[in-house]
Amino acid sequence: MFIILEEKVSDCYVLGEEVGFGAYSTVYKATSLTEPGGTEVAVKVLRRKVEGNDEQVLQREIKMLQRVAQQIQPHPTFAHTLRVFEESEQVAIVMELCTGGTLLELIEEKEQLSEIEAGKVTVQLLEAVRALHAAGVVHRDIKMENVLLAGAPDDLRLKLVDFGTAVLEEEACSGDGIVVGTMEYASPEALNADYPPACDLWAIGVTLFILLSGGLPFESEADSRLGRFAFEEEEWAEVPEGPKDLLRQLFVVDFSRRITAEEALQHPWVQHIREVAGIPAMVAPAPAEPAEEVEAPGTPPLASDPSTTAPSDGLSDLAITLGDLPDRLDMEIDLPPLQPAPPSA
Predict the structure, then answer these.
(1) pLDDT given at position 318
(2) What CA–CA distance (Å, rounded) separates 329 from 219?
(3) For 10, 54, 138, 189, which has the most beta carbons within 10 A of its beta carbon?
(4) With 0-12 CB in 10 A as exposed, 13-18 as middle and 19+ as buried, what is 1?
(5) Are strands 3-5 and 81-86 parallel, antiparallel or unpaired?
(6) For 6-47, what is each residue's pLDDT tens digit?
(7) Assigned domain for 295 exists
(8) Could you give the 3-state DSSP secondary structure of residue 18?
(9) Which CATH number belongs to the domain containing residue 19 in this structure?
């Protein structure tokens, strides 16, 4: 469990080069002033007094990080949170430093990954989501910008970050009509402001599709709502049936019938990837139990409605265009839900 301090981050760390930024935050590489050898870390600075970045948003992110620290960590797919500094003008979250960039940067450089590489990414994301869901947390904004590489890109050791829009499962469906997340990764139910845990599995499906083909599965919101996609011959001719079968199960429109993270980890293709790539099974955490939440000093409790119109503000929300993908890939959404399209004939 990390500690929350009311002192200044500058008393403990020297902030260095900027390594990422978002609408309301900046991420710096930093060096410790208090630890032997000057340990290097990442410091995410969230500014309090920026329009749209209200106190509830900041406190919810801290609350979600606390839940992860209490019920999940240590876990290899999450960046370890070390401490949080509560200052009058900003909140600074000190985290494990990941030096390999983002998954988006990697795919931009390589255009697409091999089956084994894409599989290694998918296994780790499924493990991360299994752990989150067992702890009662829905991430709501899984995308390649929010997946960091812990070391050299070729190692493909991943860390899922950015809990700015994450919520507890019991709070995930607020019914207020506010859609959060990123359009291209949004499941049909998420487009209606409904966020069951299954919405994270859809986003993993979008990620896997991009990794294997270099393109988006859905060309429009209507296609997303209907789960309408195709394996175009040119991009998919060399891809075996295993990942295609998993994608079909991840893109089931009815979220109550969509494959879960636990089930996906038992999929034959995922098991094959584990064996070939030598990825050990990770211990699943025990199901979440109601626990007293630790509030930051001097701050009011969170309201029961966790929704926000703030865009996702990830550890590495960089302005990067992904090859032939549309520029809209990085666009955040804050729209009222549309009426569901009628079922296809």
Answers:
(1) 31
(2) 11
(3) 138
(4) exposed
(5) parallel
(6) 889 999 999 999 998 877 789 999 999 988 888 999 999 998
(7) no
(8) strand
(9) 3.30.200.20
Q: Is 120 annotated as a binding residue?
A: no
Which CA distances in Å does 57 have to 126, 127, 128, 141?
26, 26, 23, 14
Q: Find all residues with CB under 8 Å of 236, minimum gap 6, and list them.
A: 212, 213, 244
Same domain, 197 and 221: yes
pLDDT along the chain (345 residues), means of 10: 85 94 88 90 88 74 91 91 92 95 94 95 98 96 96 91 91 70 95 95 98 95 96 89 98 98 98 95 64 43 35 35 43 41 44
The whole-angstrom separation of Cα 198 and Cα 204 is 10
Angle between helix axes 115-134 and 198-213 (nearest 10 degrees) is 170
Q: Encode burial over 112-135: b for 16+ CB neighbours within 10 A, e otherwise.
A: bbebebbbbbbbbbbbbbbbbbbb
- What is the residue whose two structure tokens read 């991840």? 250
Q: Which residues are annotated as catalytic?
A: 141
Strands of 40-47's sheet, edge to edge? 3-5, 81-86, 90-95, 40-47, 25-32, 13-21
The pLDDT score that the predictor gives to residue 53 is 58
Residue for token pair 């995410």: 44
| 3-class secondary-structure state, position 170 | helix
18 is a domain residue = yes
Residue 258 region, left (φ>0) first, then alpha (ψ -120 to 50), else beta? beta
Question: Nearest-5° angle of CA 139, CA 218, CA 226?
Answer: 85
DSSP per-residue string spanning 284-318: PPPPP---PPPPPTT-PPPPS-----SPP--TT--
Name the token pair of 251: 């893109």
The CA distance from 296 to 165, in Å, is 18
